[in-house]
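note to self — DONT lose this again. spent like an hour looking for the file last time. sequence + predicted structure for the chain T wanted, 741 res
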Amino acid sequence: MSSRYAPRSAVLAVVHEPGTPAPGAPLVLELCGPLGPADAETVAARLAQRHRAFDVALDSHRPGRHLLRLTPPAAAPGGVPLPAELLADVLAPPPPGGEVLPVTGHQQTLLIAALAPAGHTDSTDGADSTGGMDSTGGMDSTGGADGAGGGDGTDGVDSTGGADGAGSGGGHLEQLYWDWSGPLDVARFAAAWQSVGDRESVLRACFNWVASPRLVVHARADADIAVHSRTAVTWAQLLRRDRARGFALHRPGLLRLTLLRGASSAAAPVLPPRVLLTYHPALLDERGVHLLLREFYRAYAAGGVLPGGERRPDLRDHARWLAGQNTDAARQFWARAAPPRHAATRPGRPGGKTGQHGPGLLHTRLPAAQTFRLRSWAALRGVAESSALHLVWALLLYRAADARGPLPVSFGVQLSGRDIALPGAAGIPGPLDGPLPMTVTVDPDASLTGLLHQVRDTLLDLAAYPWAGTESIRAWSGRPPSPSASRSGLFTDTFTDPCADTLVRFEGPLPLPQALRGELAAQGIDVHSPRTAAGATGRPLTLTARHDTEGGLALSAVHDRARLADEDAAALHAQCVRLLRALPGYRDAAATAGQLLDVLARAAVPRMARPAPPPPRPALSVLRPGHPHADVICLVVVPGVPGGSYDLFVRGHRGPERIVAVHAEGAPGAPQAVLHQARGPGRRLVLCGCGPGGRAAYELAQHLPCATGPAAAVVMTGIGDAAASASALARGVRSVLTPPR
């Protein structure tokens, strides 16, 4: 979907020239287009409304140039820096009729991962350089022919790993697909999705991270629907291209649909249309997508218009509910329940490079009879099937650690964030489901039933806090911050996500209501359950279990082939299934965990590659030497800067200035020392940044000593695509370098 109220070129540049203001003096910012006087007045009015502690005044003295004066509270000392939220509202004004919400919990973790994926390094060489928003890495799909992708699973293991590594633009999205059975009216299909978008605020939402992570809900967004013919593109090609396309996180909404129609070849029979639904996990979880699909089918059955008004409660109500939670109990829980540093988390023993890349997808299935035996065995011990799966996974992690005696193991478990005390939460589409770290102690000599109950009780404890995020867990567990902190406003430290290595999900069914199925059947439409294509999950392996229509337990695993080779991932998957099949045979209460592990005594332990450390990078890079006596333009590099924007700026700049790039993620004093060296005697320094780089530039300027040379200027921009961000940066720089006329 795309917003009618967010033109791609609407990126604002803001100039600040810091000095040593007297107590109570205003902070002066210059807004450099594209804003007319009325637009500038609107920005000033919103600032005055949202930040009542500051007195806001606006002077429009030249076309496209507006002076904004922000006077801090009278009691505040001189030189008060701009609060992050105020700076965000200056650089990224809320859209007309829209709303802005803070990003918290697991959603913040997902957004951070999308902006700076693991192993990604910032540079300014024109690749997806500074935040990983627009890269175009692809992937091979889950099968090369129509009908083969994903499959329904068999009693064996089906490995369909990809070949092309997914970059950050395409590496953080999910794909579902299904075949359309019955007549398909494309116009009605599009109208139905547009109707859902008008009703569901999540489909009109996007992100802004210019100074702090925020969710922006627009008043309107258009459905993003494309139609392709099988004569022009194959299914495998379509999956790769769709993943390579990624998402622009600053534009609503982060869900799109593609229809593939026609025959595979002239000689082949006409195949049913296939629907590909792509979404970003930072804005939707899989259950949320199924809730939207239910609404879509309601709209399609009704002729393309969804009856009723906008859904409430929605993700805005959920955000307000979260903000009102008392966290005292959660703090006390995570102070004792956070995984210890020595917990085993890796699903394989250390190994060398795999020589592979991209996501891989594995499918297997327990037949209905074996699933019934497993369910009965678990029920007789007072647990659900999910606890049996968690027990098996804990044993596999213990085995990979090559330990002797008791050892804590930790892995992520997916919890439903919809089981909360918010009326109507079960029907909210959004990223409410999230992972939390489950930590249990495995002792091979202890009883199997005892470990099973330990897993069950731990899950029940976790279920009280499904809204806890990685950063909250770090703070509540008392983990100290890393001495290396980012200035982007996105990262406060390098605390490792306790769920980073593996995640186990047990998905419950969400079938369409029988009455709705009947309405669709009356129109000749038979609804098929969506299947999952392999997608990068940001961790070495994600295991998903769900019941299929035949009563069997289907197990799917998405793995990072650079960390787990296809052979090792398949072995791990097969060993998980072997243990699940063997569990019902252990009826004796004296059976131990070690006895169950003996089932795998002759099986090789999978190997897992260590993550490659990022290559060293200089704190300062000279991008253009410039004239020996010219001023210095410094581009501040932090995670989240729109990819390629700095490269375009450097290419387009025609002045004599020296252009350098500084990485502002190291020790707090390092950038200042580097900037002092880069400026040299008598030169003026212009600190520049797009998006979060603007905030980092502003903070650097606050700590630069004024006595070492001419006062520095700061040029900040909002977030847009590479061209729009570079253009806004150039406007701001021109206003600083060109004397007023």
